[in-house]
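Illustration: Branched-chain-amino-acid aminotransferase.
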Amino acid sequence: MGDGNSVTSPAPGQTGDSPNSGSPAALDASKLKITLAQTLKPLQPIETLLFGQTFSDHMVVATHDPEKGWSAPELKPYGPITLDPQCSCFHYGGNIFEGMKAYLGPDDKIRLFRPDMNMRRMEKSCARLALPTIDGDAVLELIKRLVDVDRRWIPKESGYSLYIRPTVIATRLGLGLTASDHAMLYIIVSPTGPYFAKPISLLAVSENVRAWPGGTGGDKVAGNYSPGFLPQRTAADKGYDQLLWLFGDDRRVTEAGAMNFFVVVKRDDEDGVDLITAPLDGTILPGVTRASCLALASDPEFHQEISMRLHPQEMVYTMSDLAKWSSEGKLLEALAIGTAAIVGPCNRIGFEGKDIVIPGDGMGPVGTAIRKKILDIQEGRTEWKGWGVVCA
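Result:
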């Protein structure tokens, strides 16, 4: 890939901008510097796409210095970044990121799905790790510019999209154990297809936990993820696709892998069904798709559209509850919810040597209806509450 006109990424802690004129500069999307690649990569056939393996022609980069503030952001050819080995991102995990998608609608317009929620969560994640303050609205403008420049990478087929990964890493030099006042923002994008090709199985685990009260489970920080790799390998060795994370002596159900988790349970009064998920108690990631599922499930207009009555419930529930609902024939669906998967069905949950088997052979009616509605909004086939944001 050619680099076009040369653009040098500032070293950590250096902005290369004009001298400080007062308070440190906020991130300013209007100062974006653009250098386009002279040679573009070939597009891959969509059937060969694997999640997070193929990246577009360009990226966005900006750096933060405690005295000067944020540098003018750069949109430039995709490529490696150079960091000093002392940078605190390598030693203390001061890294946060977001996951979101761009879709190309039937009107050939690019849409993002509720991006304001991603930006507010990104700001909160930065604050949780004491990273330099970042303006999510400015990040969103940079995302819009990047996906417009690289729009040829957005697949047109339904179920496919351009995955967007804005990331902030701590770049303070030195091994002192302290918060980083230097940072780098970068944004990369990757064409992607359906995350799960079939229903997934879950292994419920309580000997390891994904998050704990007072920790970072409610924020999208990098350190939340790597501790799950070893338990995930154990689950795979036992024939399961993902983990179902439990917490506490009562084995409360929390999340599935890196996704929010929902179950559909038949009500005693026959008045529709309950759509149940764990509450946001600080250990659960406030997923954008999670919030959207709950909003749809509480909307009478959506109930009328799908001819079903849903009762969303954010409540504490345990493996004992799941087993009881299953034995009583009330456990109708189990769903893994997230940006990558959107809504994916689970077919069995392993726990203490036995399986709780979910009825059916794929997505049930509730998961099907919610997934279809969200995809229709994301892909521009329908308008709904302003959730689909046109960016180009």
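Reading the tokens back as a structure: The chain has eight helices and 19 strands.
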